Model the fold of this input.
Amino acid sequence: MTGAGLLVQVLNGLQYGLLLFLISSGLTLIFGVLGVINLAHGSLFMVGAYVTFLVAKAGAGLWLSLPLALVGGTALGVVLERVLFRRFYHREHLDQVLLTFALILLFEEGRSFIAGNDFHSVPVPASLDWSVPVAAGFSYSAYRLAVLAACLVVAALMFWTIERTRAGSAIRAAAEKPEMVDLLGMDARRIHMLVFGAGTALAMLGGALAAPLYSVYPGMGDGFLIISFVVVVVGGLGSVAGAFWAALLVGLVDTLSKVLLPVGAGAAVYVLMAVVLLWRPTGLFGGARA
Amino acid sequence: MSIIARPMSRRGLAGLGLSTLALPAIAQSGGAPLKVGLMLPFSGTFAALGENIAAAFEMHLAERGGKLGGRPITVIRLDDQSDPAAAPQNVNRLLSRDKADVLVGTVHSGVVMALVQASREKGVPLIIPNAGNVAASRELCADSVFRTSFTNWQPAYGMGLAVAKTGVKKAAWVTWDYAAGKESAEGFRDGLKAGGADLVQVLSLPFPETNFQPLLAQLPGLGVQAVGAFFAGGGAVQFVRDYAAAGLRDKMPLCGSGFLTEGTLAAQGAAAEGVQTALHYGDGLDTPKNTIFRTAFKDRTTREADVYAVQGYDAAQLLAVGLDATKGDVEADKALFAAMRGARIDSPRGAFTLSAGRSPVQNIYLREARGGQNRVIGIAAPALADPGTGCKLA
Done:
């Protein structure tokens, strides 16, 4: 492969990885802080994608669907947390899996009811419907570059929030030493709501951004959910920084393996996960906690 | 999941003149109605395809006064939902509960295998009005299994041949990693070879993934002068748009099996303009038969006819040839099958005969996407038959 070809594939890998980060950061936070395995996280991604599809169908663009995904996602997350998830924190993982699996079925049925079972493509916003030549004979769509940039901005905002703000330090404390949060007299319930709302909003934002790139179709969240779990495990459960680097790693390995080793491409990220777990059983950024 | 089996719509019945079918009428017209089971997708992704096939099938029955070979025909529609898992059960319903004498179906190539199996085991006549698996015309061919559609190999072969004739020496094929994708890749390879060119690479991704980017980025490095593709529906829309956005069209023109631009041109927009595809039907086929057919179909359904409607119409025409020969007797299967095997169908696509594998020997047209239409610009491969490898019938 030529240098230019490699550059393009690295760009593809980064773009895919950053999108995975939007999904897996919420997944890892929800697991780290709330201790819940949320199988419905992929469905939330799907809901976000269908928001873009339905908004586009109604004649409006991303300027409407992105804020809608963020605000709607936060609201949906808060409602889900208050009504359902709150009752499941102290129950077994099996109960949580049943709850979230039921949510998958509900979201899919709702999707079927509202948008039907067809495969739909979603137009790229007109203002970004052009291409940038990046290598000999290959151009990169401006929208893909915009998604890459948007994901980087969101990632930067997340790190700033988590590292530099009061709410962020409370979240970190809740993820690493939950008992300390109680000892310090902070309102754990508000932290839970905040984390679940933010996680849901991130997944829906990811879906809303992804719709023009991947089209929308029934069960589209499943594939993303599984690969996001790989990201969470590789990065270390509960670690946002881990999710970031793991997402980039998984995105690059997946893309480059499709190019260099097409036969085993589907398995490459799972081999990566196995290797990482053998080397560091708690993931790249996982602490020693149980 | 409910399986919906419903008799024909009231409009369909009226159209056939079956509403006048009182008992004495049956006695006069030689026997109880013959039951034709239409197993097609009437819901889900392929619903529009199933509706057009069924509507055109019923349209031909109506043209013949609701009778074939002097025998009145009752159509039983069954929605297969394009669900391969439910297919054997659905076939069984048609045969055991509804007592269908003839089977017509279907669109999905996974679902059709259950129909082929039932037809091979029980000798029930089967006409396939779409699904393109090569197996049904090759190693699984049978006296009783007919098709009025295509094999996945055929359009891709025509495209390969047409591309090679433009002076291209090396080409690549991009597709989903499933049976139809592989079969079409083989057709493209054989067509290129027949024209003196080579297929240097097949790039594929799992069905129905749409992350085409890693595949597209490999194309400039392959040293090919043309790229062919087999995708359909939403995947085809996404692929054609991504291909254009990657700026590949100037150096490596995109072509493909006709399904790449079939029913998707509105969504593909400018990205599809000028894309050449090959199929056994196209827009602007200016024959009297086609014009009459399109007008009649539009009058009846208010929709434009498409390749699926043509295939459904021809399924009824083929059945008519068989039943005319046996005066409506479906039990005289030797005579029925022989007549159908030897049929020459005056199709809106142009006349065709059947190969030893009971699959159309037909023109594959070269089409170019212009202004939302797949305009026929020539014949990519005249009177093309599937090679029928492994079929021992004559």
Observations:
- The radius of gyration of chain B is 21 Å.
